[in-house]
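Appendix B.2, paired examples.
Example (i):
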Amino acid sequence: MPEISFTLNPSPPFSLEFTAWALRQRLKNEVDRWNGKNYSRIFVCGDKAVKVSVSQEGGLNKPKLHVVVVGVTDDLQTVRIRIFAMLEKMFPIRKDLTEFYSLSGGDRRLRLLAERFTD
């Protein structure tokens, strides 16, 4: 089956595991999958369904996301652009959370939450 792959470099700190956890917290979520290493989901790209799998390397402070799209039948560059746009809406790829982590240090409850997601 035809596939494409590409890499995304989210702003640190970033955790695919916690992002997938947050996505899966929606009631009746039957589309987001997490197996402990890979996030996957079926996307509709144009009029075709494709399977998108995302894995992370580099940890929180040097994150790199590897994206594999399986089932591509249209123009590869167009599919890559569309999938990138969808992932950018779902994942906080461009969000700089440094200020949040700095702010959370002064509030006990926020600090506990931030520590939970950075350890």
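Example (ii):
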Amino acid sequence: MPDTPAPALKILAKRSQFLAAARARRQGAGSMMVQARRRAEDEPEAPEAIRVGFTCSKKVGNAVARNRAKRRMREAARAVLPLQGRPGWDYVLIGRKDQTADRPFELLKQDLARALERLHAERAPGPKHPRKDGARG
């Protein structure tokens, strides 16, 4: 098998990019929430790139705690996304209070890898959550 270079990781910088990912798929993991969306064909970013963004709310803690959580998520993304992320996709990693900063790093990477597997698993067609009242649509 020929060695193919890992896809380039680009950083999401605009609020609109984060909002677009928030409207797409999401998967919780023990130490973070991962949002993912496939970019449209007409978007200007290189189709072979993987874009990633990181965020933590104030619930995670003060600025020091939020920055620590984001640093750890960045390192986990650098290790996992080139191997398990998909080119042409955007990912947003959201830190969780106490869990992102305190979780052992190997488990943090495993959480991200597991979330990516679930996000990219083929899903059966049909409604996500059937309505309780039996109505359709």
